[in-house]
Amino acid sequence: MPNSRSRRLIVLFSTLCILFLSVSFLQAADKPNIILIMCDDMGFSDIGCYGGEVETPNLNRLAREGMRFTQFYNNAKCTTTRASILTGLYPRFGKGGHLRQNMVTLGEAMKVAGYQTGLSGKWHLMRTKGYAKSKTPGGWIDRYDKTTHPFFRGFDSYYGVLDGCCNFFDPTISDPPYKKAGIRSFGHDDKAVTEFKDGYYTTDAFTDHTLGMIQRSSKAEKPFFIHLCYTAPHYPLHAKPEDIAKYVGKFKMGWDQMRKDRWKRLQEMGLAGKNWSLSEGDSRTYDWETAIHEFEDLRMAVYAAMIDSMDQNIGRIMTTLKETGQLDNTLVLFLSDNGGCSEEPGGRDANVRKPGPKDDYVAVGPSWGWAQNSPFRRYKSWVHEGGISTPCIAWWPGHVPADTINRNPAHIIDLMPTFLEMAGTDYPKTYQGHEILPVEGTSMLALLKGEEKTLHDSLAWFWSGNRALRQGPWKLVWDTQVKEWELYDISADRCETNNLAAQHPDRVKLMAQDWFVWADKVELKTKMKGKK
């Protein structure tokens, strides 16, 4: 039998253990869950709460109860955006690819912060050893480089397409020959997925996996971080017939009128600032009068149906958060990886193309892709505002002020430091024996709380020869079709309608020099005209 002193020590030790566990539990409970939702190739003004025609009641609700950003930037392209959103860094373009071992991912950093982590949907950062296009489902899964696989880069659970987009109804169907990509590879954790049941649709499947992660994670004492990467509305244009039926006939006004209608709604909503105006035509668009209207209407109807389906699934996520008791302690953040897409693989021959079902591979093309970014210029792969501006909605009850519009510039590199500040931890200097590149983003938590804060003195972009630099209100742009520097005062001309390069040659020269300093930093070694 222990003596009285021993009993007191046992009681004291037990009390301390209970106190420690209670504090640990409270600290875990104080950390919010985070769900970061990113869609693929969606334009700035596509969804209802940003002026679009698509029925998006769930995103509209998040906007009504949360915050909409008007100057939130991505990297204009799928891969580079995904690299930056995961690392808090500008993408690197040299040997080694966009994701390296001297970079830490959101999955890895959030795990260190005590979070459960998961990713569902599109990855598109894989490197393989001896890559060749696959002729069979999962054909190159055994040749992946583990350092670029989500399951080995910090995510406890992964399900989705490991490279680019795929057939939405049956991912075992190969891309057409002109895409030269073969069959896209799917994975579940570290295993290949090669069979898909009848009635399969990627948007639903990615959501199903997300719901499972929420339900499992909600039973643990640790908070969760989930990154959901929809492939909608990236081509091929595949949607369910009942969703398509809602929109057939609604786009016969054509792309020019659609842009004007959206511009009017953006003004009525108060999203468009006084320094905004509707930019004029695009050099790559078609003439609506000579287009086959039924085909063009159907292309946009299917595209709209894909966004509609995504919104329905976001509604399922919100319902599951409520059912699991996580609704009031979760930040939900929604954005797109780049502007609307102008690509048109396979052409636009209405006699042979059929948007909608799984047996064709159709895209919206440059005219609709341009109009989807109303009122801005250009689209995906270009770095005028239409290529790099994303709708961004933040919803977090009790923290993000409801029904607010935030006009401060922010960038996807800011998400990593924001989430780490929310988690109460610092960005790591080392990880698994590797020295980690210093984070290049800045926490935007103050912006989420409705405060004013300048995050960056300078922001830069590059893709496929197009390049840009923003310093304060000034933005310098090089368009591969224009082939000279353009200069805009974004504070007075957000939509880049008044080129001031001729009036400010010294500023153009200095900013161009700064852009090339940045280009060297991110390992851009290509020889490009216009270096000054």
Describe this structure in words.
The protein is an alpha/beta fold and 532 residues long. The protein has helices at 4-30, 57-64, 78-87, 106-112, 202-217, 241-244, 254-269, 293-323, 365-371, 385-388, 415-423, 445-448, 505-521; strands at 33-39, 67-69, 72-73, 116-121, 157-161, 186-188, 191-193, 224-229, 330-336, 392-395, 404-406, 410-411, 430-431, 434-435, 458-463, 466-471, 474-478, 485-489. A hairpin with a 6-residue loop joins strand 17 (474-478) and strand 18. The longest helix is centred in the middle third of the chain and has 31 residues, at 293-323. The termini are far apart. Residues 10-28 have low confidence and may be disordered.
Reconstruct the topology from this structure.
Elements: H1 4-30, E1 33-39, H2 57-64, E2 67-69, E3 72-73, H3 78-87, H4 106-112, E4 116-121, E5 157-161, E6 186-188, E7 191-193, H5 202-217, E8 224-229, H6 241-244, H7 254-269, H8 293-323, E9 330-336, H9 365-371, H10 385-388, E10 392-395, E11 404-406, E12 410-411, H11 415-423, E13 430-431, E14 434-435, H12 445-448, E15 458-463, E16 466-471, E17 474-478, E18 485-489, H13 505-521
Parallel strand pairs: 1-8, 1-9, 2-11, 3-12, 4-5, 4-8
Antiparallel strand pairs: 2-10, 5-6, 6-7, 9-10, 13-14, 15-16, 16-17, 17-18
Helix pairs in contact: 5-8, 7-9
